[in-house]
């Protein structure tokens, strides 16, 4: 059963399945390197084929260097009475991600510079990282901080920062042509559900369903990588072959209750931008916004040296909801329905990309006869119906210069109708798809 | 007396003359081939010089084949009592155009599939054709059909479908240059006044008046041809020389009481599109619409293999009035005033096309002195008048890249004023018209 | 102290200084040639270095010829009783500029064709010229005219029209590059304050201040020349080197109480047009208008054979205030505050032009690391501030195709912030300015 045909019931079930995957991934402590990241990929790999690449610490990738690998076993703060006041076992966010190992006794005043809170949300734990500047720290709720008395504290971060590697993972599902659609999701954030377990779940189900479907046009390449450094490392390794990417989409924050948001590529008028806008604004009552160089890894794909046709799909964008990068981005913040809707939007975008080609009218001088080809069967003197109009539009506009979506929009006809007309004309040998 | 100068009184008279021509053509039974079509051209030829081409049945023209020639003598239905219940002598529309010959006795049930009515308009006879699928039929009013009793009927269609030819006609009126303006009207519809005796009459008067006028810039080529197959056959014969067509206009449905409608060419921004919009929207309070591949023979001229700069002028477009393709499109449906207004609009468009060239300023460095050339005679310190402004605009903008209409629109000046300024500057050898 | 940093107090003082210069120039009787013009340049030369060129009468400059030089000593009308009813000593405007010498006795009827008034403003004297048609005349108020009785009058215009020369003046202030910004003001009008002593004063102060400032990017070339013939003569002499003009601004009518008006160059989208619009519409709540071939000497710079990127800055444009070209354009019509505001606008435009280049990101593949370069110092997980955003925008968009102003407008960031970000990135060797 193909995506477009899947009914509301099927998507409700897919939403519950995606949510279950989020639940499974939530407890794992991820970072941009390390075993939590690998454990995450293990979970995905039970559903889809993944190939992995390990890139050694110290490798130069453009202006950046792969950092030492970080792993953590435990982290806590005990008060003078031996009571454990902060414990990494309670929440992955309690430790500043990439904290260097430490074991020390400190007065509260000495500890304070290492403690991070969100005063405006006194029950939430913030998410903080320190990938590129060696330091250590704890994140805790403002209430926890307020409860700390003056006195000596013992702190322990049992982590390692040592030569190792950064892990990239890919899942490639071949299509009829080797030209690719790139689907990218960052996989480095610890226990944060919307950002970005939601997109990991949606991407995984997308790949799962596509692998079972009959081959379609484009090859799909899913990339799971740590934010920023992972995208940069992937681009560095794949620089010679990014020309195969015909369309791309960064997937992020796909589980919250907000409406879908399509963010255009740097080009602003790439095919993915027109398709994204068409699907998100029309079918999903979402919104579209122009590219800006702040956000997720579209920043790297759309840097001026690459300028790839890569847009971004989120629900509420990063930084525009209070729960962002805090412990409140939890299992209650994302819903099966939102995950299902995001999955459906992805499938609609991808289905449209698959058929939305430029075509060439093979009988371009005057109209060809449609009647003898079984395409047009009316008593003379009467007007054609919608399908007849779609046939005339596709024939008239297929000069190789504009694609079916542009034709549908100009003709003010449903895209699906226009795509069916094009298929019928290809079948009648009146039309040829251009590469 | 030239077109632009003709006053309201002259146009009223021209409208009556055009209406008389419609009246003369109305009784003839036309089709896409045959003697009715030739008789129609005979009428036109009494007013304007026509050259005719006969294209033999069976000739391949692009994807199409010239059909057998159709001629009809009589057609009727008699009831069991010998009463003639439908008779072609009463109205040309009573027989399905291109009906094969038939002589048979049938029960009403057997006859019904061959009978066509317009239930929503019970007094009107529909117009139906069957050019490319051999069949026969009658068209009648719903009231006539309702009056038929069960029983046997005798039907007779005394027609011939036999090898012959399709007739094309042209009238060429030379101008100063061999580049052409194409004016095209379909001439195949039987007793339907708006569609398209109106345009035949307007085109004929246009040619008549131009032939008597002093030579103007472009050569005008009028083509009278059957809809679809005629336009296709004409394009097939003239494929090598369509490059001479600088501007073109399909004329149709120019007699009804609705406002004028200019339909853009497929290019959308051809000179004819800008001129058509300027004249129709400004001087005639009409409307403009984008090209679509449904309508009249602009479909063939604007097929992607030709993509000619051919727009269309109608009053109410086909299919947007109830009387369309029915016996209600009769002599009462068209008016002398509407025909006169259409003629006047055509003449305004053609006059504007004639002068609307790209010009080159021959003294482009700084302003030339206008005073010594008698073009600008003001005491220093005072502002120039409208004509002075027009001179400055034409000089400043005539870099060969934009035509007078674009200059007039940018300057927000009347086109006629700008054209007079250009003529004065040409006269003063400060400006040269580009081909 | 540079222009941008100058505070309101400093500009108030500058406005008073500019006004004093207008007062000093007001009594001089200027024309397009002659000693009044030279005396005017002497006044400017006491403040800024001027080089002068004298072009001999009779010299052909494109379509024009330098006229004879005009000088005037006295001009009056006496009535029959010997009473002096009009005297050039009272007001320079009393004589038609470029009047040929005359000494005659005439009845009032014979005198009338030589008398010019403004009936709608009975107390004002009009400004009239007759440069290119030899004649003579007087301008007077309607009240003066009404008071004249029938009878004989004696008229005297003691002027000379003789071979001499037209005077052009330039002040060049070098910048880091030899590419130029042209600043042009006409200097031929007699006692008219807004048109154009205002612009002479603003341009002079602009040059004065720039000459004292540290060298900036472009070389500035100030041209002071008579209207029309002077601009044409200057372009004729400088035809081979106008390619050095990167941006230009005609300055005129900068002292009235109206808002600033930027008039676009003929190109419409030149850098000066975007910068002019940005500064005038944003910082000065002024208005912008498209090029038209009527106005001041932008007509010559923007003639199609030159089509230079030269816009125009005025307050109320010529012809849109009643006082225009009359004795009411006097010292009361212009204000120190308006002169100060105009000067400030010019300096803002010029400062923006100086930094508003196209830049090239030298690390265009993915984002470069900003942290190690001291440009970006945030705990991971937090959003960048405005300056951080400006850095990201400049890096992302600096592909050599768009300038900082375009980037600031796309990013909806303050231009100054974006320019500071670009400077920091140049300093960090991540960005290079393109010529």
How would you describe this structure to a colleague?
3 copies of one chain form a homotrimer. The first copy, chain A, has 435 residues and is α/β, with parallel strands linked by helices. The first copy, chain A, has 3 domains: 3-66 and 165-355, Aminopeptidase (3-Layer(aba) Sandwich); 70-162, 3-Layer(bba) Sandwich (Glucose Oxidase, domain 1), CATH 3.50.30; 358-433, Winged helix-like DNA-binding domain superfamily/Winged helix DNA-binding domain (Arc Repressor Mutant, subunit A). Chain A contains 12 helices and 19 strands. Chain A has helices at 8-25, 35-45, 108-111, 142-146, 193-212, 229-237, 271-283, 298-301, 336-355, 386-397, 404-411, 415-427, and strands spanning 51-56, 60-61, 64-65, 69-79, 84-87, 102-107, 115-116, 138-139, 152-162, 165-173, 180-186, 219-225, 245-251, 261-263, 287-289, 310-314, 358-361, 399-403, 431-433. An 8-stranded mixed β-sheet of chain A has the order 1-10-12-11-13-16-14-15, with helices on both faces. In chain A, strand 14 (261-263), helix 7 (271-283) and strand 15 form a beta-alpha-beta unit. In chain A, helix 1 packs across helix 9. Chain A is elongated, with a radius of gyration of 26 Å.
Defining traits:
435 residues, Arc Repressor Mutant, subunit A, disordered N terminus, 23% strand, alpha/beta, 12 helices, four-stranded antiparallel beta sheet, elongated, eight-stranded mixed beta sheet, homotrimer, Glucose Oxidase, domain 1, Aminopeptidase
């Amino acid at each position: 059963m193909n995506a477009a045909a899947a009914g509301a019931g099927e998507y409700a079930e897919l939403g519950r399945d995606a949510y279950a995957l989020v639940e499974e991934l939530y407890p794992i402590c991820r970072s941009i390197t390390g075993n939590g990241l690998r454990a995450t990929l293990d979970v995905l790999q039970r559903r889809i084929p993944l190939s992995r690449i390990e890139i050694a610490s110290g490798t130069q990738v453009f202006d950046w260097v792969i950092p030492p690998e970080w792993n953590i076993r435990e982290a806590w703060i005990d008060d003078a009475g031996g009571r454990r006041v902060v414990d990494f076992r309670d929440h992955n966010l309690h430790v500043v991600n990439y904290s260097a190992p430490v074991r020390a006794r400190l007065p509260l005043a000495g500890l304070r510079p290492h403690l991070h809170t969100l005063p405006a949300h006194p029950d939430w734990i913030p998410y903080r990282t320190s990938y590129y500047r060696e330091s250590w720290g704890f994140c805790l709720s403002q209430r926890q901080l307020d409860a700390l008395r003056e006195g000596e504290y013992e702190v322990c971060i049992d982590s390692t920062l040592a030569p190792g590697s950064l892990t990239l993972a890919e899942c490639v599902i071949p299509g009829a042509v080797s030209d690719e659609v790139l689907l990218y999701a960052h996989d480095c954030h610890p226990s944060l559900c919307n950002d970005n377990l939601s997109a990991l779940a949606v991407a995984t189900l997308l790949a799962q369903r596509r692998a079972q479907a009959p081959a379609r046009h484009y090859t799909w390449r899913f990339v799971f990588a740590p934010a920023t450094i992972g995208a940069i490392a992937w681009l560095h390794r794949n620089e010679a072959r990014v020309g195969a990417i015909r369309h791309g989409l960064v997937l992020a924050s796909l589980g919250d209750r907000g409406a879908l948001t399509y963010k255009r590529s740097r080009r602003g008028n790439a095919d993915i931008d027109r398709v994204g806008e068409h699907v998100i604004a029309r079918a999903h009552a979402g919104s579209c916004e122009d590219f800006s160089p702040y956000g997720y890894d579209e920043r790297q794909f759309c840097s001026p040296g690459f300028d790839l046709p890569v847009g971004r799909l989120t629900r509420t964008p990063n930084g525009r909801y209070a729960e962002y990068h805090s412990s409140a981005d939890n299992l209650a913040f994302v819903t099966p329905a939102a995950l299902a809707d995001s999955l459906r939007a992805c499938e609609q975008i991808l289905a449209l990309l698959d058929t939305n080609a430029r075509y060439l009218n093979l009988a371009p001088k005057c109209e060809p006869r449609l009647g003898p080809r079984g395409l047009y069967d009316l008593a003379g003197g009467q007007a054609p119906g919608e399908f007849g109009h779609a046939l005339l539009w596709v024939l008239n506009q297929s000069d190789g210069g504009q694609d079916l979506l542009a034709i549908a929009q100009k003709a003010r006809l449903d895209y699906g109708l226009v795509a069916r007309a094009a298929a019928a004309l290809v079948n009648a040998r009146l039309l040829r798809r251009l590469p």
